[in-house]
TrEMBL record:
Family: Belongs to the universal ribosomal protein uL5 family.
Domain of life: Eukaryota
Gene name of the encoded protein: RpL11
Molecular function via GO: structural constituent of ribosome
GO biological process: translation
UniProt-listed SUPFAM superfamilies: RL5-like (SSF55282)
InterPro entries named among the record's database cross-references: Ribosomal_uL5, Ribosomal_uL5_C, Ribosomal_uL5_dom_sf
Keywords, in A-Z order: Ribonucleoprotein, Ribosomal protein
Record's protein name: Ribosomal protein L11
GO cellular component: ribonucleoprotein complex; ribosome
Keyword Chaperone attributed: no
Any Pfam family: Ribosomal_L5_C
Organism lineage string: Eukaryota, Metazoa, Ecdysozoa, Arthropoda, Hexapoda
């Protein structure tokens, strides 16, 4: 999970808008094309997007 989140943040150039965050500190972001994450393109599936939601908590 951490690896795919890191790739997602790299696609967004590690920049998130203020409205990506909730008041309690959790955040979310979206990627429009999965190939931006380095996932191989499969013509039978086409292009799809991904949404990431991160819930922060204490161990």
């Amino acid at each position: 999970a951490e690896e795919i989140l890191e790739h997602g943040l790299k696609v967004r150039e590690f920049e998130l808008r203020r409205d990506n965050f909730w008041a309690i500190g959790n955040f979310g972001l979206g990627i429009q094309e999965h190939i931006d994450l380095g996932i191989k393109y499969d013509p039978s599936i086409s292009i799809y997007g991904l949404d990431f939601y991160v819930v922060l908590g204490r161990p």
